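Help!! Second protein's tokens look totally different from the first
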Amino acid sequence: MIFEKGLKKTLDTYEKWWAGELDRPLIPITLTGHMTERKAPRRLYGGQSSFGNPDITPEELIDGADFELSSMEFLGDAFPIFNGIYSGPGIVAAFLGTDIKVDNGNIWFYPKDELPLEQLHFTYHGDNFWLKRMKAVMSEAKSRWGDSVVIGMPDLGGVADILATFRGTQNLMLDLYDTPDEVVRVMNEIKLLWHRYYDELLPFTTPGFHTDWSGILSSKRSYMLQCDFCYMLGTDMFDRFIADELDETCSFLERGCYHLDGIGQVPFLPRLLKIKGLNLIQWVPGDGPYADQDWFELYRTVLESGRHLQILYDPNHTSLNKLIDYFGTGKNIVEYGRVMPAHERGKALKLLAN
């Protein structure tokens, strides 16, 4: 792989950005498809399809990931990362007993039995197959790469989303009305186990370099929290069942981040900005008519609250340039890392220069 800056220098840049001392946005660009003379491994890296296939050993999985990295170049604020999305969105559900199925290259989680909420009691099981596989894969990655590649925290999932996996979204919506105390009980059990899994997997990540599927680097404990389930909730329900858990988990971390996914979550932004330990909002408008809408007011609200902001990239940095024009600086903003083919290296360098 081609990475001229090195991890230490890159981490220093991110830390200046976190501290508000970097008077520019972070723009990570990864180029793929560089020619390599290495012989392809027996199994190419398939991300979630590789992790979800127990026949693929941790050594084979990392062989494939290593070969893929060897064709990459990291420009701007990008860095070599073993991104935790390979385990699927919400691997804690599997740690707690769901089955894993791979469909079209993606991992999906299915409960063995759909139990009534009152019968759900979540406890820790250290001999869980997927937890042990996760540790084995991360251990192999750490042994192979040392501190040359950042091993990210897996996509653990959101607490309410994990519960929705076991209950089904429609059933959980009814549970909020029918047995609210039971919802709070079970979510608290999942939350405490989520914290335990985070602590347990942390030693398998790269010491001093924290990241996750968002690709944001930090020297401190950080994580991109989320709650897709709350898209269907009103603000009262969000306050009652979701906000306190996010508050506690942000306190558990050192740098809490939140994945604000879609227009249905915009009403929760004022409550999110009251969470003291929440340092960053990642805004994803979703598909359809909202994808190309100008979200400048939302960006301004986040930045003026003193939080950092992650935005999706657009072809010409239109949103980013508007923010820079308004604030007179691009500080506290990071673009979601874009991936470009190696033959567009000139275009990538031009984007970085502008």
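Here's the second one for comparison:
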Amino acid sequence: MTPPIDQIKRTFPSYNVSKLMTAYEALHLRFDASAMLVGMLIRLYGKQGELIAYDVLREQSVIFGGGKTGSITEFISDFVAEAEVPNLFTAGLRIEMVRASEQEVLLAVKECEWARYFLERHPQVGYLMACSTDEVAYRAFNKDLRMQRSSTLMEGGEGCDFRIYTAPDASDPHASSQKAIA
């Protein structure tokens, strides 16, 4: 009848325990309980529950991305480059760079472990939990970054088409044509 934390401490006396796992397993460990909670909020409170969940997820994105600054190139380099140490946010992604400049990057995500996990385990909340706050994360990284996307794997598309671009400078009179896009 030993409490669970004490059992874990006895079994693993060192905190330096690690286990290699797949991206799918990591996503499951990180998001399974949260996805069940979000699903319950939506079942109990409908659209209001969905909005509550979105607000919490949005705040997490702001906190995670907050305080960082950088250009599109710097932001995307982590997203596109093969990470030396795999991380949960680029897990299982197969990305094709369509076009890149200092002001805009077009990416096509062809495979995504997040989409596979959520579609298999929690399809009713997958888009909300994994995709809905992408632009929030970009803006938390750099307030001038914007994102457009017309398709996602999570919603049954053949891929995710990302357009990430810098919002035009409000003081630039020649930027008015892009303001409508932002």
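Reply: Different proteins will give different token patterns, so don't panic. Residues 21-179 form a domain with the Muramoyl-pentapeptide Carboxypeptidase; domain 2 fold (CATH 3.30.1380).
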